[in-house]
Amino acid sequence: MAEIIPGRREEIKALKAEHGNKSLGEGIRFRGLTIPECREKLPKASGGEEPLPEGLFYLLMTGEVPTTDQVKLISEDWKLRAQTPLPSYLVELLSKNVPKTLHPMSQLTMAVMALQERSLFARAYGEGKINKNNMWEYAFEDVNNLIAVLPQVAALIYRTRYGKKAADSNVSDWAGRFAGELGFTDAKFTELLRLYLSIHTDHEGGNVSAHTVKLVGSALSDPYLSFAAGVNGLAGPLHGLANQEVLQWMLKLRREVGDSPSDQQITDYLWTTLKAGQVVPGFGHAVLRKTDPRYLCQRQFAQKHLPADPLFRLTSQIYEIAPRVLEEHGKTKNPWPNVDAHSGVLLQHYGLVEQDYYTVLFAVSRALGALSGLIWDRALAFPIERPKSLTTEAVKKLVGA
Ligand SMILES: CC(=O)SCCNC(=O)CCNC(=O)[C@H](O)C(C)(C)COP(=O)(O)OP(=O)(O)OC[C@H]1O[C@@H](n2cnc3c(N)ncnc32)[C@H](O)[C@@H]1OP(=O)(O)O
Ligand SMILES: O=C([O-])CC(=O)C(=O)O
C-alpha cells in the first residue's frame, strides 16, 4: 500500500482537475471486474470453486487480482490478528447481558462500538501523531484488526441468540473460520459462505451502508465508529434488512396458500402487498436497471447445488411473475430482483434458518468493501463531507418559485 498510494494520489488529483465536472456510472464492478469475472479469477480454497473474500479485499485495496499465496498471507494475517481474545466485557455483554429480543444487527453495532476501545487511529489522533500522510496506516491497522475479529463477534451473537455451539474445524480461511464458529462443517455451506461474503462486499460506494461509513469517516471518526454507523444503515428494510424481509415475505406466502402456490396465487399475493402500500422486498434498485448480477450468480449456485429445493423453485416462480406485476403497477424504475431476493433461500437450504440473522452476514461482508474504501479515503485525504442544506422556503426564494 505504501508503494501504491503516492502514485494514486497524483493520478486522482490530475483526474479531478481535468474531468471533475462529468457524471459517470457502470453497474456492479469490483475494480473493473464483473461478478462472473471475480468468480472466475479470484483464488479459491483448495478443492473449492468459489472466490475467497480475502482475494476480493486484496483486489479492492490494490486494484490487482492476487495470487493464491497472497490470499493465503491475508488469511494467515487475519487469523493471527483474531488470536487476541475478545475483551471480556464484550463477551459478557453479548452472551449474558443483551436481551434475546434485541435484533442481531443492533447487537453487532454494540459489539463494534465496544471494540472501538482498541482503535489505534483514535489513540494516535489523541496523541497528536496523525497527519494527512500517515493517517491511512492507522486506518489500515484498525480495518484489518476489525475485519479479522468480525466472524468471531458475529458468530458469538448467533450462538448466544439461537443456543448453538461452534464446530471443530481446521479450515483457516476467513469464511471457513466463520462457518466453523457458526457451528457448520458442511463443505458446501462453507463454499456458499465464501461466495456470499465475496459478493456482498460493496456496490459502488454510494449505497447507504458504504456511504455512511465514508461520511462518518470523513469526520476522521475511526474505522470502528465509521463501520458501526454503516451497520445501522444496512439494518434498514430498504437496504440490507431486505435480506430477511424477502424470506419472511415468502414464508408468509407459503403459510397463506400452501407450499406449491399457483402462478395466479403468487400474482394475487404480490398485488395484496402492493395494494397495502408496501414494497415487494428483494425487487427494485436505486441504480440497477436489470436483474442484479449477484442474484444471478446465487441462482447459478442454486441451479448447480440445490435445483430441487422447494424454496428455490418458489424463488424461480416469483422471478417469472413479479417483474410483470411490478411493471403493471407502474411505479418502480426497476422491476427486476436484487441480491436480497436470493440469499436467504440458499442459507435456508444449508440449515442457517434464522432469518433475523441474515443481515449480520451481509454486514460482515460489507466490512470488506466499505472499510477498504475507508483506507483509501484516508490515503487520499478526502475532505469532510458536508452537503448543503436549505429550507423549502429558501429554495423557493432562490429559484424564484
Ligand atoms: C442490497 C440492497 O440494498 S438492494 C435493495 C434492497 N431493498 C429492497 O429489496 C426493498 C424493495 N425495494 C425498494 O424499496 C426500492 O426498489 C429501493 C429502495 C431498493 C430503491 O428505491 P428507489 O430508488 O426509490 O426506487 P424507484 O426510483 O424505482 O422508486 C419509484 C417508486 O417505485 C416504488 N418501488 C420501488 N421498488 C418497489 C418494490 N420492490 N415494490 C413496490 N414499490 C416499489 C418506490 O417505493 C417508489 O414509490 P413512490 O413513487 O410512491 O415513492
Ligand atoms: O447499491 C445500493 O444502493 C444497494 C446495493 O445493491 C448494495 O448496497 O449492495
Protein architecture, described:
Helix content is 62%, strand content 0%. The chain has helices spanning 5-19, 35-41, 53-62, 68-81, 88-97, 104-115, 120-126, 135-162, 174-182, 187-199, 208-217, 223-234, 242-257, 263-275, 293-305, 310-329, 340-349, 358-379, 392-399. The N and C termini lie far apart (51 Å). The chain is globular, with a radius of gyration of 22 Å. Helix 5 packs parallel to helix 8 and helix 11 packs across helix 18 (358-379). It folds into 2 domains: 5-9 and 28-236 and 355-379, Citrate Synthase, domain 1 (Orthogonal Bundle); 242-349, Cytochrome P450-Terp, domain 2 (Cytochrome p450-Terp, domain 2). The protein has 19 helices and no strands. It has 401 residues and is mainly α. The model has no long low-confidence stretch (mean pLDDT 96). The chain binds acetyl coenzyme *A (ACO) and oxaloacetate ion.
Key features of this structure:
401 residues, mainly alpha, Citrate Synthase, domain 1, Cytochrome p450-Terp, domain 2, 2 domains, 19 helices, 62% helix, 0% strand, globular, binds acetyl coenzyme *A, binds oxaloacetate ion
Write a compact overview of the structure shown.
This protein is mainly α and 401 residues long.
Q: Distance between the terminal alpha carbons, to the nearest Å?
A: 51 Å
The level-1 CATH class of the largest domain: Mainly Alpha
CATH superfamily of the largest domain: Citrate Synthase, domain 1
CATH architecture group name of the largest domain = Orthogonal Bundle
Tell me the radius of gyration.
22 Å
Number of strands: 0
Largest pleated sheet = none
Mean pLDDT: 96
Tell me the structural class.
mainly alpha
CATH structural fold name of the largest domain: Citrate Synthase, domain 1
Q: What's the overall geometry?
A: globular
Portion in helices: 55-70%
- Beta fraction of the residues? under 5%
How many structural domains?
A: 2
Instruction: List the ligand species.
Output: acetyl coenzyme *A, oxaloacetate ion
Number of helices: 19
Report the order of strands and helices.
Answer: HHHHHHHHHHHHHHHHHHH
Give start-end ranges of low-pLDDT stretches.
Answer: none
InterPro entries: Citrate_synth-like_lrg_a-sub (IPR016142), Citrate_synth-like_sm_a-sub (IPR016143), Citrate_synthase (IPR002020), Citrate_synthase_AS (IPR019810), Citrate_synthase_sf (IPR036969)
GO biological process, one term: carbohydrate metabolic process
GO molecular function: acyltransferase activity, acyl groups converted into alkyl on transfer
Keywords: Transferase
